[in-house]
Amino acid sequence: MGEGERVVESCMQYYAEDTVKDLCKAEQAVIFGARLVAVEAAVCLVGKPYDLNISYFLVSGTGENPTEVLGKPVISLEQAREILPRNVLIIIAVMEKHLESIVENLHQSGFSNLLPLTFESDLWSDIRGNYFMEYCQKNQKEYWKLEEVLERQIKEPEMRGEDKELGEEAKGQTKKADPRDEDKEFGEESGKQTGELKLIDKDKGFEEETENQTKEEKIRGKEKELGEGTKGQQKKPKSNGRNEKFGKETGQPTGGNSALAGKNRNQGVCIYTAKCHVDRELKEDLHRYSWEIPIQVGAALTGERICEVRDNIGDHISEKNREYCELTALYWIWKNTSSQYAGLCHYRRHFELNEVLLDQLCKSEVDVAVTIPILNFPSVKEVYRQDHVKQDWEIMMEAIRILQPKYQKAAEEVEKGIYYYGYNMFFARKEIVDDYCRWLFPILAYCERHCEKKEDPYQNRYIGFLAERLLTIYLKGHEGKYKMVHVRKHFVER
Question: Any alpha helices (H) in 36-76, and if so which ranges?
Answer without folding.
Answer: 36-46
